[in-house]
Amino acid sequence: MIRPILALAGLMALLSAPATAQIGGMFGADGGDKPVEILADEGIEWQQNSKAYIARGNAKATRGDTAVAADTLTAYYRENATGGTEVFRVVADGKVRITSAQGAVQGDRGVYEIDRQVFVMTGSDIRMTAGNDVVTARDSLEFWEQRQLAVARGAATASREDKKIRADTLTATLGEGAKGGREVRRVDAFGNVVVASAAETAHAETGVYNLERGIATLRGKVRITRGQNQLNGEYAVVDLNNGVSRILPAPAQDGQPSRVTGLFVPNREGAGTPAPAGTPAAAPAPGAPAAVAAPIIPARKPAAPTGGARPRQ
């Protein structure tokens, strides 16, 4: 049976209100002057020596439309300049889930540092949902409140519908969605980058994916594959919305220009006629190579692009 915390509810609400409001700000939600409601199956423990309040057993803190739920919630406080107290760190342990009207974050353990306004989620099945966008990570997911920036580390992914980008590390910049709420606007990818859609897969060392335009810019050992056809180069622009890709060679070194290389496998006779543009082709006969659904266009080399620096953390 869930019991309201009575004896220390007032103190806990006063201490936790700023923290809960900031966590809600992760998705643009702010409880304003609304009170904090805290529920827990096993009550609350006040540790005066360590200056902490611990809510145990299916603990849940709610403020406005934002809720933080976990097996255990711990709020660490300190004295402030006016002689009062303030929470500076909130720790959620076990089946952690933060929800608001504009998104959700989940994992096994979450730590919110109020001074830095950064929330770090670790554990298994780490993910953040904002609108139709989903960001996942194997090792950790950070959210930097002031910058509206999520950093996913370890086999990280960001997806929208059937389009996905994967890398060792992803930084996702959030913004206001077309229908309100939050959505991912841009993803910067670092290390073992893979961009995938229903039509093709592209590999690179680094990349930038603009979700609004559906365009991924890739750099470093780029390889684009569609069926059995493949192009290799050092720089590519992949339009995931229209299924058109441009790939370029690396800059010339020591007067020796580099080249784009490609492998194109023709259809075998009787394998079928390619489907009209915009229509998925029929499956090839057993043993026949797959048909190319849309062109991969080698382009002339433009002026050297300006590379974005990895966001500082």
Helix content percent band: under 10%
Strand order within the widest beta sheet? 7-8-11-12-10-9
Give the CATH level 1 class of one domain.
Answer: Mainly Beta
Unreliable sequence segments: 1-17, 272-309
Please tally the helical runs, counting DSSP H or I stretches of 4 or more residues.
Answer: 1
Q: Kindly report how far apart the N and C termini lie.
A: 42 Å
The radius of gyration is: 25 Å
CATH architecture of one domain: Sandwich
Q: Helix/strand-derived class? A: mainly beta
Pfam family, one: LptD_N
GO cellular component, one term: outer membrane-bounded periplasmic space
GO molecular function: glycolipid transfer activity
Protein name: Lipopolysaccharide export system protein LptA
Can you describe this structure?
The chain is elongated, with a radius of gyration of 25 Å. It has one helix spanning 9-24, and strands at 3-4, 37-40, 44-47, 52-63, 66-79, 85-100, 103-113, 118-122, 126-130, 133-137, 140-144, 149-160, 163-176, 182-196, 201-210, 215-226, 229-239, 244-248, 261-263, 296-298. It is mainly beta. The protein has a domain at 1-113: lipopolysaccharide transport protein A fold (Sandwich). Mean pLDDT is 79; it is low at 1-17 and 272-309. A hairpin with a 4-residue loop joins strand 15 (201-210) and strand 16 (215-226). Strands 7-8-11-12-10-9 form a six-stranded antiparallel beta barrel.
